[in-house]
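User: We ran a pulldown and think these components assemble together. Before we commit to crystallization trials, I'd like a predicted model of the whole complex to look at. Sequences follow.
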Amino acid sequence: MFRRLAAPALAALLALPLAAPAFADEAAITARKGQFQLFAFNLGILGSMAQGRVEYDAERAQMAADHLFNLTRTLNTGLWPEGSDNASATNTRALPVIWSNLEEFATRWDALGTGAEAMQAAAGTDLAALQGALGGLGAACQACHQSFRAP
Amino acid sequence: MRRLLRLLALLSLAGLAGFWLLTRPASLPASTLAALAAHPADAENGARIFWAAGCAGCHAAPDIAFNAPIEERLRLSGGRRLSSDFGSFIAPNVSMHPEAGIGAWTLEQFATAMLLGVAPDGRHYYPAFPYTTYLRARPGDIADLWAFWQSLPADATPDQPHELGFPFNLRRGLGLWKRLYLEPRHPTPPADDAQLARGRYLVEALAHCGECHSPRGALGGLQAGGWLSGAPNPSGQGRIPAIPHPRWSAEDIEAYLFSGFTPEFDVVGGSMADVVVQMAQLPAEDRAAIAAYLRALPPADAR
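Assistant: Here's a predicted model for the assembly, 454 residues in total across the polymer chains.
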């Protein structure tokens, strides 16, 4: 139910015209980049095990996957004010097309949640399960980056 | 007055004749034709060349998901758009369809396209098709690639015209462009080490990394210096970075080309995502060779 409502609700929220001053946009950009760093930190724990750079540790993997899952739940629409794209601000690679295509953006955020859910179910089982779930999770990240982020 | 007009007419005729001669399409030398004919075709190596050369990156259908079954990238229907300062190029259908694609071509016609950028009817291809890189490929690899191509599906999707303004819509002028910018020599000196030599061949003759990652001049020719030192994004969004990243190890580069994960576990995006999907199809030793080659380059500001 949540999943079904989340995408349109997010789209509607993001579409609200926000007449926020530029410094607030800067803060929002910094904060949302922090959220992505948290994604990357937890993904890094899982990915370095999957790549064989670090030994598989079920407990650590599960913890990282739990955090990642929770992080993908908390989409703060305040972090994505209109006018915080890379055409208006210098410290972001977020493309303006996000705001002209909010429904698709929200759908892909949802897909990230699905990927994180699958990882949460797999990470603590064994290395092969973790490796199996990583592809889908990476693809969810990638799907958004391909369309919505500048190189 | 009459004499002056006659002189002017003669001069413009001479100019036209000169332009015609200078822009004539080239044909393959006898040595290349002999090498193509003598080569026993190996379709398995052809598949490896296919993924290394990134053919599907432009010629597969638009909007294929990152994790879509790889077979989807073997249907070379065309339709992807490549934006540039000169207009938009729409990749043509190069599937095995005899009319809509290139299914009726001969090996010689295929090699002429890959190595010279010349179509069977003698027209020049735009260098959006990176024959500027492929001209360094070995004829045997081109023959293998064509053998692999025979196994690919036919697709009837019709070509769409490029969207180019004057004078870039005049293909004949590309003959002059080729005289200025087609450079069969490699951008870096040969390597003694077998792995580095393989990496150099993959990057400089097939993977065409330099087509995006190296700076270009006003007419779109690659600049002599600054090999892989980064460039503005031709599509207008941001910059294509210098490679390799100064802090990435060879292992990091290999992992990135296989999985799309950076060492910080950021995930590849943009047009590089399609490159990674194709690089992931290569044997690990080829990705290792590319990584070793990149790592052995001098720092970006010293190239």
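Chain B has a mean pLDDT of 94. That may be worth checking against your pulldown data before setting up trials.

User: Thanks, that helps.
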